[in-house]
Amino acid sequence: xxxxxxxxQVRPFQQAAQYATARECSPRQDxxxxxxxxxxxxxxxxxxxxxxxxxxxxxxxxxxxDSHGRAVEEESDGPPLATDDAPSQTARYTTWRAKLAQxxxxxxxxxxxxxxxxxxCLNFASKGSEIWVGVYVERLGLRHIxxxxxxxxxxxxxxxxxxxxxxxxxxxxxxTLQLCFISSSALLFCFxxxxxxxxxxxxxxxxxxFVDIIxxxxxxxxxxxxxxxxxxxxxxxxMGVGRSGAVVSTALGxxxxxxxxxxxxxxxAFFLGGLLCLCFKLETSGRSLADVV
Length: 293
Fold this sequence. Notes:
Helices cover 65% and strands 0% of the residues. It is globular.
């Protein structure tokens, strides 16, 4: 007899036949390999209608909005980026022309001119007297101390550096400068009046004691009085102008007919430097570095 099967009844037999075929093709494979073979015999899932083979694209994160619907910038851990429309405050005086413009503006111009003048007087007086002191004692007939007087002068300088540690903090930069300028002037005129070797040696040591205190406070005051943006420029210009005074005083000792006249000018320069220090208004001792225009 011929038996007819409906299509719905034939489908289970077809699936069983496909499974048996996969088992016969790979009898030694494990169950996982057999399942993969059966899956390969069935139609692919992507071929079924209504399914897409492309992966969904991730959506960008939604930006935060305030109550009025305006976008709000998210906070960042790093510093804000500088733009051309809003330059940073510290980069305003980066060029040489801009620094000169700041130095020639307002109270800084007065401070800068005063610093240059004081530095010039200090270099003129100290360098001239230091270079010509050996020649001066030789012309007095005291050739045997023409070299030892330099050692006494250096000893006074070392002692001045040590004393300055407490003196400048106790009196302040400006008062220390005034005191030491006037003292150096008085001791230099006393040096001109002395004639014996011991007195000349002691006066040279005492005078250089005060001179080195002036140098220490001058360097410190110039570094503290000017704003950060022009500090190095102002310091360099002031000391550069001051060094020209050393050149003039060195040449002056060999031009004048008598060294007594040159030493009198050196003493006058010390006195003038003390008077100029009276014009300093900003005391920097015990205060933080100035950083204002």
